[in-house]
Design brief:
206 residues, alpha/beta, Rossmann fold, 6 helices, 25% helix, globular
């Protein structure tokens, strides 16, 4: 069973629908005892970094997330869920992220001819043998919706990059923690394959 963390962020339903399409059982919850029984867990979301962290604290989910990751549960952050795994964001100065991974979230620089937020399809440059990208071709297109981007502090955890005004760390992996800035659930057949690759992981893989 795949747990989906409900913390009043947007886009939870589309992740749930994509997993159901692939044939996986899911549970959407903010209850610790429910999420801790899941084989793997997803933190989706669109919205504000600061509000999201406030909600995670309000619902007592910060320690739940940390405990699940420390126990080796495969964990996937999507879009805002990726950003929350890091230390801070320019969107919400002074607000601490989960700090599971090292890096910062920065505003996409203005660039003539490019709109912010970045909304649309961009190709991925794959690197460092990401497990999410097994059988995914180089330069595959995936769907993004964001105004802020990740600059990871550990180059080796970056498994995919894209370019939109600047180099964006589009996906990271470290041990049992995975994250995508793009939306695999909205990225067609290849996006579903990425979700399938995550769903196929077990604790024995780490």
């Amino acid at each position: 069973m795949i747990g989906i963390i409900d913390y009043d962020a947007g886009n939870i339903k589309s992740v749930e629908k994509a997993l159901h399409f692939l044939g996986y059982e899911t549970v959407v919850s903010r209850e610790a005892e429910v999420l801790e029984k899941a084989d793997k867990v997803i933190l989706p979301g669109v919205g504000s970094f600061g509000q999201a962290m406030e909600n995670l604290h309000t619902y007592g989910l910060v320690s739940v997330i940390q405990d699940m990751i420390n126990r080796g549960t495969p964990f996937l952050g999507i879009c805002l869920g990726l950003q929350l795994l890091f230390e801070s964001s320019e969107e919400s100065p002074g607000v601490e992220g989960l700090g599971i991974l090292k890096g910062e979230i920065l505003r996409i620089p203005s660039c003539p001819g490019l709109k912010i937020p970045h909304m649309g399809w961009n190709s991925l440059h794959l690197k460092n043998d990401g497990r999410l990208f097994a059988d995914i071709p180089e330069q595959s297109y995936v769907y993004f919706v964001h105004s802020y981007y990740l600059k990871a502090r550990e180059p080796e955890i970056v498994k995919a990059e894209t370019t939109y005004s600047t180099t964006i760390h589009a996906s990271v992996e470290k041990d049992n923690v995975f994250a995508c800035q793009f939306h695999p659930e909205k990225s067609g057949r290849l996006g579903l394959k990425i979700l399938e690759n995550f769903a196929a992981l077990g604790k024995e893989d780490f």
